[in-house]
Structures are given as structure tokens and as C-alpha cells.
Amino acid sequence: MTSINKKVCCEVCDECSWHLLPWAESGPSVTTSGMIVDASLGKGQCNSCGVVQRLTTELLGQGTFYTQNYHTYFSRVGAETFDRSRYAATAMWMKSSLGKFCPQNIADVGCGRGWTMKEMSLLFPDTPITGIEPSEEDARLASENGFDIITSTLEAAMSTVGTFDLIYCNNVIQHSLSPRKFLSNLMQIVSDNGLIVLTCPDVTRPSNEMMWSDQNFSLAPVHLFKLASDVGLHVLSWQMPPSLVNLANKQLIIASKDSRIPFTFCSGDPPSFSISENIEERNQYLEGWQSLDNYLCQSVSDKTAVYNFGASMWSYLLRGYCPKYWQKVDACVIDEFSGQFMDKAVMPYQGIEFTRKDAVVLGTEPLNQPSLEQTLRDRCLAASIITWNQIVPQ
Ligand SMILES: [Zn+2]
User: Fold this and answer.
1) How close is the Cα of 9 to the center of ligand 1, in Å?
2) Domain spanning 69-256: which CATH class is it, in words?
3) pLDDT value at position 248?
4) Which of these, 55, 222, 299, 320, could form a disulfide with 30 (CB 3.0-4.6 Å)?
5) 267: CA distance to ligand 1 center in Å?
6) What DSSP string runs through 63-112?
7) Which of 198, 273, 271, 179 has its CA nearest to residue 236?
8) What is the mean pLDDT of residues 84-99?
9) Domain chopping of the chain, boundaries
10) 13 C-alpha to center of ligand 1: Å?
């Protein structure tokens, strides 16, 4: 039985004094691949350095989660179409961050189905790219698409993988069992003049990155810098994302083994981080989620049919953390796609005759909800449109 272990030491500062965040000890929780896990979210914030860490006795990555159960992350209806712009934007962000750097070979650590590799191969057309991916299904699909893939965790591949001039890993470190070990492993496989580019959520402002039970760590820039320097890496650049909704709350660092790299990289100033402000904001954010189920249920209480607009990771969160609302959902709707999302049918928006007695609840990124609401109003949608960005601000 998974339970909280408050005696775990902080990955960043090695202290073991924790402030438990809301939902730390009551389950279930949700993974980024859409699984509902019969264990609490289990997150605590370190009283000493402010990092958020999952404090449960077992972490999902210790079992077969990433090798066997993660591929559903990429199987959401329309995911490849809807997410393509994010993979392309991430590749462009990495490429522009690297300036004149010309790697002879590249590794994508945690490459999934190769969607970022595809974008990177357009930007580095003459450079071989190797993917490392533990999910057997995702690795198989990436291989079938012609990519050079090693089906393995980074840890298990270390002795045979060789070295690379450029290693990038997008949204992987927060899933690892130990970011310190992960960075140390990356350092061992980057060439002497090579670069590591790492993107992950920037947790300076609270966001849904805290809501996933497969994300074990919430790292602000200050935590990334400390971990990198502890293992002997030099952070050459820190960057906030381009102003795109699909890269909101992300951060990028460029690191190397050697500080004497003959290139200069643009760098921004990481936002300041206050532990006390952060605890307050995180509590408020999570408490917003805790009140959302009742809010949505009330909002649809007099409706004949309830449609959840979207079938993205935000809908995973609604399904997991707003179970009473989810029971009332008749179907998910997306523009021009049909299929199945968890236990609900997905219907193309264009095929439904909405009436004034129906509700369309936006199951999407809160940041986008005002503009999506306007788009639906412009389509003269008869149904009531329910937003919740005022309950869970982003
Ligand atoms: Zn700490």
C-alpha cells in the first residue's frame, strides 16, 4: 500500500522537513498518460528550499509504468494533430537557443514516438538523431517511422550508448526517480564540447504540473541550477519560453561539462522564488481544484445533456479530480474528431445539434478558455458555455 513517507530527504537540499500540499494524503490521483492511480498525489514542499517532491513510499517509475503504461499519453484522440504545434515550437525554441552550435550527433532522451525528433530532423537535416525511450510501444512506433531508437531507460542504456554532441530532453527530468542522478547520467554521455538542453515546467507560478502523480518533482530555476552545479555541470543559459500558450510555464536550460565552450548563448534572468509566497499560491491553486467538482456539478445541474469540450490532458484532470462532474458528462466533443476518450465517446462538434438546455463545459487549458468561449459564441452555439478559469486560474 502506497503511503506518505515524510522522512524522505529533499532531492535538492537534503533536508527532510515538509509542508504537505492539499491532496497529499487523499487519493486517487492522475498520471499524464491518463491513468487513475489508487494512491494520493502525495506532494510536499520542502520547507528549506521550496522544491516540491512526491513523498509516497513507492514512485510509479519504480515499477513498469513507463515501459508498459505510458504510451496512452500519445494515444489521445487527435493528439498528434493538436500537439504537433507544441513539438514544432519546442524544437524551434531549442534550435534558436543554440545559436551557431553545430552538433555532429544528437540524442533525444525520452523521445516518445519521435514527434520532436521529426521536427528536429527538419532543423538539423544532416545530423543523425538517436532516441532513447523506455516505453516499448512508443519506441516501436518511433522505429517504424524510421527513427533510430534505443528501447531503454537512460540509466540502463548508459554503458552502451556512447556520447553525443547535443542531448536534449523535454519534460523528462520531473518524471525521473532522481533529477540529480538523471543530470549526472546526462553529463556522462555528453561529449567534451557538447551541450545538454533540458526543458521542463517552471514552477515559479503554480500550474497543473503539480497535479500529476507520475511527476515526482516540481523544479524552479533555482533548483535546476543547484542540481546541475552539484553534479558538475555548468549552466550556460536559462530561458523563459516564447510567448505561446502551448509552452506556457516551461523553462529551458543549456548546460555543459566545460564552461569554456566557444559559443555564447542568450540568457534571461530566472524569476525570483519565494518559498512562503509559493506555498500560499500553491495551496490556493490546489484548493481551487478541490472546489471545482462542486462548481461544475452546480453549473450543469439543470442541463439536459452535458458535453465536455476537449479530450486533452486537462480532461484527464477533470475526470480524475472532478469525478461527480465526469459522471454527468454524456460525451466529449472536439472539432472534427471522433473516437473514445477514457469511458466517454468523442463526437465531432460539427455533428451535434446543441439546444439551449445543453451545457458545453470547456475541458481545456484555463488560459485558453476566454478565447475559446468567444470562438464558440461567434459560432452562435445554442448551449450554455461553462468556463472554470475563474476557479483554477492559470
Ligand atoms: Zn529542499
Assistant:
1) 8
2) alpha beta
3) 86
4) 320
5) 25
6) TTIIIII-GGGG-STTHHHHHHHHHHHHHHHHHHHTTT---S-EEEET-T
7) 198
8) 94
9) 69-256, 295-386
10) 4
